[in-house]
């Protein structure tokens, strides 16, 4: 593909102010704003502050309305071009969304960190059966589609996983295998399952086939195709692993800083005894390892991995002897590489260089169990066979070294093939299998500084796969257009057949020319290169470099690659050297000789050339034939950075991989046709606002879509049978952009009008409230003013009257004074008065002042003391109060402790009885009288002593007191036991019928309890009555799938269990004869009855003979082992029946819940806008809400069934609590996995449905529903977030503490990034809030629990026997009428109600 052709993306009118993408050397693409246009060039102000001039033809438009979290399918992008794709992947990667679709292709970006929450079993459950694209992109979705297609269509499928080294192919393959094992796996009956063995083979293959490269610490240096075979039932029945092109040259040649295959380093780190046995040293002491300076991997322990590899080999069926032989061969290869050669005395001969080489030759021969001299001759000499004689020709040191390396590569490749064959034999294949799913994990396109024969073969493989990929993508496009009956003939299909012909054509292709050169002894890489230059000088895909005489370039689909031909000839040669073959086939080690079986006679006499290139071409051809016979699915793995670290996205690196992976080519094929596709309902919902009048009335959806497109003047579109198809280019303007912008404007206008309306309504409401307040204030003010004036007037009158009175008095006084003056004598005589003791008076005055001061001081001290006294008294009272509270709590805790100790003692006693009985029972006997022997039946009322049945007291025998201490004849005893057995059988036949209820009490449970208590069945060592009861219950619920039956038996079983719980206690020892304890509080039981298990005080049982008449005489029974076992079995059945009822309700509402979840898709089409469609909308609303009403109807039916059968309200509450929890999980997880559910309109829809459930809860009452409504807290808060307005203004604190306090940051983050407003076009929370959420998630990333954003459904049993006992009211069973079947039987007379 011409990358430049695709970069321009969609032709668009660029104007000043346009937001665009331009090419950038460091970032691949950078966004900016057009500031000036001059001719064919534009000046762009980039986001990093630079000003760049670029050609308009190389500028791509930027979508300013792209969702902040990106899109999960890149065919939904408004602009389908390189920068749009890159930006979308980068945005999603920053959100830890590592999977993205491009149509049916899955792009997987390596996160370089563990994300266990997206691969757990609950996530597998979500993707099971979900159509592709319905949930968020995931590797499980691809595997599920492949499996469903295989099951439904009966055709084999394949999943092709590709990508460069370090992109995560191997991990992706493991996840595919895990999911396929989840879908088609079987429970292991004997040994391990097929899928387990396939998964467990990975560590072994990685140890011998993986190595560290420049780009990846665990790079697979071979291709792997895993065939998983399935039987007719869709279960895995067999598997096979096919491998391709192991990189043999790595055994002898390692570049720095890479490593050789892992197994060499693992063996060098083996335990000391292994090192000594193989005479090994550190890796740097071996030539095959020390060519690179890298010996260890960061964070990896080779010693640990050696032991792990040995364990993995055990698991896949490689025996200990075979393992020793394998590592002996690996050690021999290391020693072989250290054999060096020097020139010999003869011409062109060679000898061992030194003693070190002799030592390694000796060790190699010992480990391979062959003769050392024969090994030396095989390395240093060649045998030439002529018609006259056999000649041994010596080899020079260089040729001997080549011979040594050839032997090492041959041994290692055969060892690897043996391991693969052994794994396949261990796994086993199913010859009858008709369907398979193949998972191809193969190397991606490679282009390094130095590219040799391995890169040539790898890129040849990828050219083949790319052709297959292109054909598939084109085929999918073609099928879509054909199905929709639109014209597609003009779409161009780019084929790379010319490159494949260049490489593989025979004769005349590069591989054929290479084989030809290898067969001529005098050929060199120079002559080979010249032959290539001459043959392909006119080929447009072959390029001769100007500055090299041996290199050549090929223009691959992913770009041009320069190959160095220096080692092509050597690496293509795979001689079967006769000397090597003869030497090792005669080895004394059976394992080594098995790697080199005898060759046919004609090939054993000389070294025969075998072309690796040709053999690889045949392997590849077989692989392509397999792939062509299957339905392919593609996963493109991408390595986001070369640092192998999380959260780093290198644009240039990723863009190159997208080109190499064919992703951009797939997009180009899509762009050539109609990249934008919308179903009619989606189109009308999205673009209906452009022409509201078209939606008036009830016109056909197809016609309505056509009218909208015509109204906007769009041409060139096509309308299919169910979808509208839009071209990428529309006369210089992108159609999709135009539609989306128009829709966005309309949506924004609608949203703005709604927001303005809301604001105005709020303002009017506020002004109205203020006006009313002001009116009230004014009225109050007027009233207060009038009252004040009246008060002032009255005061004024009073003052005036007083003034008049004062004036009159003053006048009178003046007249009297005047008269007195006139009458007074004319002279007044002054008299002086002498004051004595002045000093004494002064001193007394001063003393008095001092006393006053002292008095004040004393008063102050007295006040302070009084205040302190009051404070102390308050503190004392507070402490006294706390002391009383503490004493009360201590008393309560002591009582609780006593109760718990007594419960514990009882449980320990009960367990002791069960353990002792279990130990004492012979292994060939069944527990609790399961054997129907006569002896056990007769021992119903006796102990087995020395093999004889000894009778105990018969509680209802009239002659009990007379015969208590006398021996009983065998015949009467036999008769008595037979009668007892008949009564038991009659009781069991009776309770097998539906006996109904007596005033809400289950009759079967009540009469069963009364019979067991009367017969003292709880107190005997052996009895068969309990087995009969348990079998009756089991048969009733296992033969019918009827909720009425389940509810009936749940009511009976729980009632009987309650009565047992309040009556039985464990016996102190197994051998003590059972008796009824009649003493009161002086005994241990007397003390326990006051507190043990909260025995109800209102329980009233009435039996004959006055044995139990009132609660004050209620005694617990010391139960023996059969009774305790019966209680356990009954508990298990209560839990089982409860679970069956709960699960039946789940099954009934699950399809309805699915419709509620899926309704978000149809609702957007059905609830169209337009005033005249109110009736249509109303009908659509009713149809949609009907799903929720169906759930309510199911809940009502179940509640009625449970109430009709008088199931204890406690159990009913538990059922509905778990059901509502199930609803919460399903709805909430759907939001997190389906983007279409995370919309505003879906929020409104689910909110209306939740209102239906809330209404049902209120009608059902708390007695039967309890706190079930609270179980919906996650979905309620999430929906509240979806429908709230002005999300960008909300802070993280408001969201996490006020709106959604229950939701985790991971859940909030996912909802916030997936949210889209399909109604008003508003945005989600602000980028600042998103950033804060990401920071919090990073801080908490080490917690695997917090990383999981999905909820788990709890299917446990949420109650214990004690919970039932505490929650149920006392039951009076004294007046229960026996059923007709036993009413007239004399043996059941004690059941008749007693009258005073």
Automatic annotation (TrEMBL):
Keyword set, alphabetical order: Actin-binding, ATP-binding, Calmodulin-binding, Coiled coil, Motor protein, Myosin, Nucleotide-binding, Repeat
Domain Myosin motor span(s) in chain numbering: 69-739
Domain Dilute: residue ranges: 1027-1339
Signal peptide: none
GO MF annotations, alphabetized: actin filament binding; ATP binding; calmodulin binding; microfilament motor activity
Entry's Gene Ontology cellular component terms: cytoplasm; membrane; myosin complex
Highest taxon, organism lineage: Eukaryota
Region (Actin-binding): 620-642
Keyword ATP-binding found: yes
Disordered: annotated segments: 915-955
Record: residues binding ATP: 163-170
A GO BP annotation: actin filament-based movement
Pfam assignment, any one: DIL
Start and end residues of each Myosin N-terminal SH3-like domain: 15-64
PANTHER family: MYOSIN, MYOSIN-9
Family statement drawn from the similarity comment of this UniProt entry: Belongs to the TRAFAC class myosin-kinesin ATPase superfamily. Myosin family.
Protein name: Myosin motor domain-containing protein
Native organism taxonomy: Eukaryota, Viridiplantae, Streptophyta, Embryophyta, Tracheophyta
């Amino acid at each position: 593909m011409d990358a430049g052709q695709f970069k321009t993306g969609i032709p668009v009118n660029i104007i000043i102010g346009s937001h665009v993408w331009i090419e950038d050397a460091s970032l691949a693409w950078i966004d900016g704003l057009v500031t000036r246009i001059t001719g064919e060039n534009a000046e762009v102000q980039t986001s990093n502050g630079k000003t760049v001039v670029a050609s308009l033809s190389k500028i791509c438009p930027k979508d300013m309305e792209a969702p902040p979290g990106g899109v999960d399918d890149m065919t939904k992008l408004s602009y389908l071009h390189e920068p749009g794709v890159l930006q979308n992947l980068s945005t999603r990667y920053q959100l830890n969304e590592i999977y993205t679709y491009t149509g049916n292709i899955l792009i997987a970006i390596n996160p370089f960190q563990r994300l266990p929450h997206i691969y757990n079993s609950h996530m597998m459950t979500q993707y099971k059966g979900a159509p592709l694209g319905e949930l968020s992109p995931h590797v499980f979705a691809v595997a599920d589609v492949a499996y469903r297609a295989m099951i439904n269509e009966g055709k084999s499928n394949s999943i092709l996983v590709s990508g460069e080294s370090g992109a995560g192919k191997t991990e992706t393959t493991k996840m595919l295998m895990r999911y396929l094992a989840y879908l088609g796996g079987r429970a292991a009956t004997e040994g391990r399952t097929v899928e387990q063995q396939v998964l467990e083979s990975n560590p072994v293959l990685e140890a011998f086939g993986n190595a560290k490269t420049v780009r990846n610490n665990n790079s697979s240096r071979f291709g792997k195709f895993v065939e998983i075979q399935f039987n007719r039932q869709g279960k895995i029945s067999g598997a096979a692993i096919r491998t391709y092109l192991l990189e043999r040259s790595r055994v002898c040649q390692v570049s720095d800083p890479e490593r050789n295959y892992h197994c060499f380093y693992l063996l060098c780190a083996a335990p000391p005894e292994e090192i000594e046995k193989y005479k090994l040293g550190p890796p740097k002491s071996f030539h095959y390892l020390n060519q690179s300076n890298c010996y260890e991997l960061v964070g990896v322990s080779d010693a640990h991995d050696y032991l792990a590899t040995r364990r993995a080999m055990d698991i896949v069926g490689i025996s200990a002897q075979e393992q020793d032989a394998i590592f002996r061969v690996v050690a021999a290869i290391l020693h072989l590489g250290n054999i060096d050669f020097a020139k010999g005395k003869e011409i062109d001969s060679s000898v061992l260089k030194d003693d070190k080489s002799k030592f390694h030759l000796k060790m190699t021969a010992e480990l391979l169990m062959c003769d050392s001299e024969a090994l030396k001759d095989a390395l240093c000499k060649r045998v030439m066979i002529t018609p006259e004689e056999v000649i041994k020709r010596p080899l020079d040191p260089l040729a001997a070294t080549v011979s040594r390396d050839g032997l090492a590569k041959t041994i290692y490749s055969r060892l690897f093939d043996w391991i693969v064959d052994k794994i396949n034999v261990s796994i086993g294949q199913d010859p009858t299998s008709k369907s398979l799913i193949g998972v191809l994990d193969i190397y991606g396109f490679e282009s390094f500084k130095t590219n040799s024969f391995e890169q040539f073969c790898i890129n040849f493989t990828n050219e083949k796969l790319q052709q297959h990929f292109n054909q598939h993508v084109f085929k999918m496009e073609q099928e879509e257009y054909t199905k929709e009956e639109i014209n597609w003939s003009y779409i161009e299909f780019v084929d790379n057949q010319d490159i494949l012909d260049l490489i593989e054509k025979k004769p005349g292709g590069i591989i054929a020319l290479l084989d030809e050169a290898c067969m001529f002894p005098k050929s060199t890489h120079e002559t080979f290169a010249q032959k290539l230059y001459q043959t392909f000088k006119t080929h447009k895909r072959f390029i001769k470099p100007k500055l090299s005489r041996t290199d050549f370039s090929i223009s691959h689909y992913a770009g041009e690659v320069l190959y160095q031909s220096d080692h092509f000839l050597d690496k293509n040669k795979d001689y079967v050297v006769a000397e090597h073959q003869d030497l090792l086939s005669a080895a004394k080690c059976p394992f080594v000789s098995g790697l080199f079986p005898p060759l046919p006679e004609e090939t054993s006499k000389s070294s025969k050339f075998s072309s690796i290139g040709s053999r690889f071409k045949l392997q590849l051809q077989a692989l392509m034939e397999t792939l062509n016979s299957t339905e392919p699915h593609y996963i493109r793995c991408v390595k986001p950075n070369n640092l192998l670290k999380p959260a780093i996205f290198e644009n240039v690196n990723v863009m190159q991989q997208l080109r190499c992976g064919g992703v951009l080519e797939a997009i180009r094929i899509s762009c050539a046709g109609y990249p934008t596709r919308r179903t009619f309902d989606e189109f009308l919902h999205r673009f209906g606002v452009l022409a509201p009048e078209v939606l008036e009335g009830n016109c056909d959806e197809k016609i309505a879509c056509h009218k909208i497109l015509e109204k906007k003047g769009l041409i060139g579109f096509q309308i299919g049978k169910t979808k509208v198809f839009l071209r990428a280019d529309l006369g210089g303007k992108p159609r999709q952009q135009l539609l989306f912008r128009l829709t966005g404007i309309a949506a924004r206008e609608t949203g703005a009008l709604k927001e303005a309306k809301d604001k105005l309504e709020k303002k009017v409401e506020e002004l109205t409230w203020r006006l009313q307040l002001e009116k009230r204030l004014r009225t109050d003010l007027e009233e207060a003013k009038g009252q004040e004036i009246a008060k002032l007037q009255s005061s004024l009158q009073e003052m005036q009257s007083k003034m008049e009175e004062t004036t009159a008095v003053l006048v009178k006084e003046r007249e009297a004074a005047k008269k007195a003056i006139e009458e007074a004598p004319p002279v007044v005589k002054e008299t002086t008065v002498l004051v004595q003791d002045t000093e004494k008076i002064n001193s007394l005055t001063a003393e008095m002042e001092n006393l006053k001061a002292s008095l004040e001081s004393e008063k102050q001290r007295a006040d302070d003391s009084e205040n302190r006294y009051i404070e102390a008294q308050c503190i004392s009272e507070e402490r006294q109060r706390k002391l009383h509270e503490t004493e009360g709590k201590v008393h309560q805790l002591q009582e609780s402790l006593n109760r718990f100790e007594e419960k514990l003692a009882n449980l320990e006693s009960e367990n002791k009885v069960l353990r002792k009985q279990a130990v004492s029972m012979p292994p060939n006997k069944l527990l609790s009288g399961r054997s129907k022997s006569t002896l056990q039946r007769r021992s119903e009322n006796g102990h087995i002593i020395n093999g004889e049945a000894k009778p105990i007291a018969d509680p209802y025998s009239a002659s009990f007191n007379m015969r208590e201490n006398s021996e009983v004849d065998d015949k009467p005893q036999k008769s008595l036991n037979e009668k007892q057995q008949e009564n038991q059988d009659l009781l069991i036949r009776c309770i097998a019928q539906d006996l109904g209820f007596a005033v809400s009490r289950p009759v079967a449970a009540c009469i069963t309890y009364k019979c067991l208590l009367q017969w003292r069945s709880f107190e005997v060592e052996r009895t068969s009555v309990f087995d009969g009861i348990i079998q009756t219950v089991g048969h009733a619920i296992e033969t019918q799938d009827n909720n009425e039956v389940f509810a009936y038996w749940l009511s009976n079983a729980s009632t009987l269990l309650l009565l047992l719980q309040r009556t039985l206690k464990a016996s102190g020892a197994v051998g003590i004869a059972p008796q009824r304890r009649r003493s009161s509080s002086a005994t241990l039981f007397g003390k326990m009855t006051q507190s043990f298990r909260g025995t109800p005080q209102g329980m009233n049982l009435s039996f004959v003979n006055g044995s139990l008449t009132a609660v004050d005489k209620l005694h617990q029974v010391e139960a023996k082992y059969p009774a305790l076992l019966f209680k356990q079995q009954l508990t298990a059945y209560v839990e089982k029946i409860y679970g069956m009822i709960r699960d039946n309700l789940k099954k009934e509402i699950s399809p309805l819940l699915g419709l509620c979840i899926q309704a978000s898709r149809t609702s957007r089409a059905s609830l169209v806008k337009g005033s005249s469609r109110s009736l249509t909308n109303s009908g659509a609303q009713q149809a949609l809400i009907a799903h929720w009403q169906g759930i309510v109807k199911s809940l009502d039916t179940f509640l009625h069934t449970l109430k009709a059968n008088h199931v204890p309200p406690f159990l009913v509450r538990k059922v509905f609590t778990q059901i509502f929890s199930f609803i919460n999980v399903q709805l909430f997880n759907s939001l997190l996995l389906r983007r279409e559910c995370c919309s505003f309109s879906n929020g409104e829809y689910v909110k209306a449905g939740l209102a239906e459930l809330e209404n049902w809860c209120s009608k059902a009452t708390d007695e039967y529903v309890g706190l079930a409504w609270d179980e919906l807290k996650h979905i309620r808060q999430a929906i509240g977030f979806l429908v709230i307005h002005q999300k960008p203004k909300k802070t993280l604190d408001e969201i996490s503490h006020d709106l959604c306090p229950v939701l985790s940051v991971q859940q909030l983050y996912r909802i916030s990034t997936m949210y889209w407003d399909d109604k008003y076009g508003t945005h989600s929370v602000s980028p600042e809030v998103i950033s804060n959420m990401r920071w919090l998630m990073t801080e908490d990333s080490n917690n695997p629990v917090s990383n999981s954003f999905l909820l788990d459904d709890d299917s446990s049993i949420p109650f214990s026997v004690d919970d039932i006992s505490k929650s149920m009211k006392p039951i009076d069973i004294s007046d229960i009428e026996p059923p007709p079947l036993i009413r007239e039987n004399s043996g059941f007379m004690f059941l008749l109600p007693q009258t005073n």
